[in-house]
Specification:
About 50% of the residues lie in helices and about 15% in strands. The chain is globular and about 80 Å long. By secondary structure, it is of the alpha/beta class. It contains 17 helices and 11 strands. Strands 6-7-8-11-10-9 form a 6-stranded antiparallel beta sheet. The chain has a 3-stranded parallel beta sheet with strand order 1-2-3. It binds adenosine monophosphate (AMP). Adenosine monophosphate (AMP) binds next to strand 1 and helix 1. The site of adenosine monophosphate has 13 residues, from strand 1 and helix 1.
Length: about 425
């Protein structure tokens, strides 16, 4: 069964709240249990420095809290790759390699940077006032996080789609210059995962100071839920679930049947106090077992540290050899071996056929097979996703043989593409044999 690599990072800049849990951790943990998925989940502590400059204690505390949350929520660290970003020195090194192929114009268009500039302009400030290079370069660091582990799928909110597209752009540019090293990732938007509202009805977010911490005590949870903004309808008056923060929070922690029962209770004029009590019980029941595990974990930070160290070793067993491959690709090479194999090394590199992957204006994903002398051998059909194109390339590299049909080439009975003018199936097979060899 082909596996999909999924990657998610959570910035370690605050205390995890119900929105982080329902919007990111809970679906990520469910996905990690799929037989066809390989999951990479990390604590994005380099990212945290962008927003928390000058507050080291907050980053430290948040890293512990978020690590303990993942574990308390049931993440099986044997099954997944669970690590702290700053334990992988290959990530900042890859960030530099990518920085050198990322165009500044692309980064100028990043939403977060543009929003900061627009705000400055509106206030009559210098466009870049208060903008650090971390904010500007954040999409490149994020591209390194994703590309390092050849993730196919990155579950994100809609506001992050642009960053995944940037990662793809940067990867495609690198692949074009240095050969096919990176998988082009895709954003995965899960329509069933709602954005949770906070106490004031806006998106629950640290920035709005309207969060319900996931591991509040029962008493705190009750108090916070009591402060959720509602309208002034009296008990007995029908209430509208649409746009009600209370209803949306209830839904995120309930079965469809429970949600329908609450919808009926709204129509029947349930009192706000009663609805809040029902919400409290629903969330408290869901969180209580995790809360206990969380408290036990947070009391033993050295055990969490040890888990993260194990996770880093596991992640680096992928990152270290991959970065070595990339260093070679860009020309950061051992001089001793270059002198030994002078000429031969160059000729060998030049003598390899290559796959080149790209996206066309029709939105589909294509590849070409180019012979060692640079001539085009095969042009693929369009694939719906970069993953499908990549898997087809992988099949060819592993020795799967294309066959000739009336209107083109087939692989495993499915359309593969067409031979380039002047190319023969024998030449394609020869190139594939050399790649497999
Ligand atoms: P952040 O703390 O902003 O880095 O967010 C970490 C993860 O939690 C991201 O995947 C967000 O999409 C998710 N998240 C944050 N706030 C909410 C919310 N209010 N509702 C749903 N998901 C959220």
């Amino acid at each position: 069964m082909p596996t999909t690599r999924i990657l998610t990072g959570i910035t370690t800049s605050g205390t995890p709240h119900l929105g982080n849990y329902a919007g990111a951790l809970r679906p990520a943990i469910a996905a990690s249990q799929r037989a066809d998925a390989e999951s990479f989940y990390f604590l994005a502590d380099y990212h945290a420095l962008i927003k928390t400059g000058g507050d080291p204690a907050r980053v430290h505390r948040s890293t512990l809290e978020i690590a303990a949350t993942w574990l308390a929520a049931g993440l099986d660290t044997e099954r997944v790759w669970f690590y702290r970003q700053s334990d992988i020195p290959e990530i900042p090194e890859l960030t530099w390699l990518l920085t050198c192929v990322a165009s500044k114009g692309l980064l100028n268009r990043a939403h977060a940077y543009k929003a900061a500039v627009d705000k400055n302009l509106a206030e009559g400030e210098d466009p870049d006032a208060g903008v650090n290079m971390g904010l500007f370069m954040y999409p490149v660091l994020m591209a390194a996080d994703i590309l390092m582990f050849k993730a196919h799928s990155v579950p994100v909110g809609r506001d992050q789609i642009q960053h995944i597209e940037m990662a793809r752009d940067i990867a495609a540019r690198f692949n074009h210059l240095y050969g096919e090293h990176f998988v082009l990732p895709e954003a995965a938007i899960d329509e069933s995962v709602a954005t949770l509202p906070g106490l004031d009805g806006r998106k629950m977010s640290k920035s709005y100071d309207n969060t319900i911490p996931l591991f509040s005590s029962s008493a705190e949870l009750k108090k916070l839920i009591a402060s959720i903004v509602t309208d002034s309808r009296a008990p007995g008056e029908p209430k509208d679930p649409e746009g009600s923060a209370l209803f949306e929070l209830y839904q995120a922690f309930s079965t469809p049947e429970q949600t329908e029962a609450m919808r009926a209770a709204f129509a029947g004029g349930i009192a706000w106090g009663e609805a809040k009590q029902a919400l409290f019980e629903q969330i408290d029941t869901a969180v209580a077992p995790m809360r206990e595990r969380y408290q036990a974990l947070i009391a033993q930070p050295e055990l969490i540290e040890a888990r993260l160290k194990e996770g880093a070793a596991k992640a680096r067993s992928i990152a270290t050899p991959f970065l070595a491959e990339l260093r070679r690709a860009v020309g950061l090479r051992n001089l001793g071996s270059a002198i030994e194999q002078r000429g031969g090394e160059k000729a060998k590199a030049a003598a390899q056929p290559q796959f080149k992957q790209y996206r066309e204006g029709d939105g589909r994903f294509y590849f070409k097979l180019v012979a060692a002398d640079g001539s085009l051998l095969l042009q693929s059909v369009g694939f719906a996703s970069p993953k499908e194109a990549g898997q087809t390339i992988a099949r060819l590299k592993q020795g799967a043989a294309p066959s000739e049909a009336a209107d083109g080439l087939l692989l495993d009975g499915r359309p593969l593409g067409v031979l380039a003018g002047g190319a023969t199936l024998a030449a394609v097979q020869d190139a594939l044999a050399r790649l497999a060899g």
